[in-house]
Each structure stands twice: as structure tokens, then as C-alpha cells.
């Protein structure tokens, strides 16, 4: 039997690199998947590419309470239950020192990366099946600082507090809550960060990041998806309140 046979999953940030790779893996392992994202055109393309009756989408801004409640409602209407929640949506903001960081962008990063995680836990977990699993995407930036990424770093540190609290509050229902902490991943987000740091030579910024990784390369999105699959499956049934680092040794 496949690891996620007859399980229903919500994945926020579902059209992005990690979200899409995870959705594809979940589908191959027997799950039904609701993809959540901000852009309908992109979500439609992903669903078309999947070509699966077990995949659906919902357009939502995860920082808004009403949108969050709507994607929960649509999942229950479409699939009848919720077993798994990959609380994954996030943005990087801009690369500027704290003293020069634009307040409006700081607010946007905190709204999506932190409030979006909070709202997801607030509205999804009460509707989840007992014994379910919540996986929240933090980052290696949730464990250490990075110059120029103060808003992103702050949001990813704070997610750990939400995870630990949710793990304690839902242990009586056997719902597991854990964070994952990827290092740089070969996705659109890192391309944007590289361009922001070094507009004239983004490859130089990439090399600088890679030099900090003992494995000497970025992760691929499917490698992160494999960790999410483990945390979603019964193979991790005694794990909750933990931080799972997947960074090629960057934080060693």
C-alpha cells in the first residue's frame, strides 16, 4: 500500500518549487491534494500538468483569515476530510540591512510567512482528522542569521514557536506538528535572492551560498519533498515538536 493511500492533504504555496514537488510526490503515493496559492493561472497550469482527478486548487492569500477559512471549506467540500497540512507558503522579501529595510515589505513578509502559518494552524488543525500531520516550512534562516534578510530570518525563527505550541496543544489528538529547515533550494526564490544581492552577477551570489554548504550545492525541490513525505507518513508517527534540518550540512 502506498504511504499516503486515501489521505487528504492541503499544501499552501502549492504552485512554487517545493510545494509543487511535494504535491506531485503525494499524488504518486496515493493522496488527494488541495493546492493553495495566490495566482489562479499558475495553479491551473500545475493542475493541468498533474492531470489527476485527485488534485484540486484554491486561490487564497494565506495572510487573510477569510481566505484561509475558504481553502479549508473547499477542501472539505471536495475531498470530505483533511489528514495532512503542509503549511508551506512564504516569500523572501528584499535583501537590505535592517537600518534600510522598507517597512511595507517587512510587514508583507511577516504577514505571509508568519501570520499565514498562524492562520493555517488556527483554521486547519481543528478540522483535521485525529492522528494527522502538520509540516511547517521554516528555513536554515530560522536557525541562524543572514545579513540583509532580517524580515525573512525573523519570520522563520518565529515559526518555530508556533510549531512547538501547536505540537503541545494537539498532542491529545495525536496530531503531529513539525518544522522543516531547508538550506538554499534550486527554485525561483533563490534566483530572486541572488539577483537582489548581486544584480550584475547573480552567479557570484550563488557561488557564495554554495561555498557555505559542505555538500557544495543547492538542494533540489524533490529532495525537500521526500522529507515532507516522511513527516506526513506513519513512519514519523512518534515525532512531534521537532525541527528537521535539511541543508547539506550548512548548519553543522
Percent of residues in beta strands?
5-15%
CATH superfamily of the largest domain: NAD(P)-binding Rossmann-like Domain
Class by SSE composition: alpha/beta
Strand order of the largest sheet: 3-2-1-4-5-6-7
The CA-CA distance between the termini, in Å, is 36 Å
Oligomer: single chain
Q: Look at the structure and give the mean pLDDT.
A: 95
Q: What does the radius of gyration come to?
A: 17 Å
GO molecular function, one term: oxidoreductase activity
Keywords: Oxidoreductase
Pfam families: adh_short_C2
Protein name: SDR family NAD(P)-dependent oxidoreductase
Structure description:
Belongs to the short-chain dehydrogenases/reductases (SDR) family. Pfam families: adh_short_C2. With 252 residues, this protein is α/β, with parallel strands linked by helices. It contains eight helices and seven strands. It starts with 7 loop residues before the first strand and ends in a 6-residue tail after the last strand. The model has no long low-confidence stretch (mean pLDDT 95).
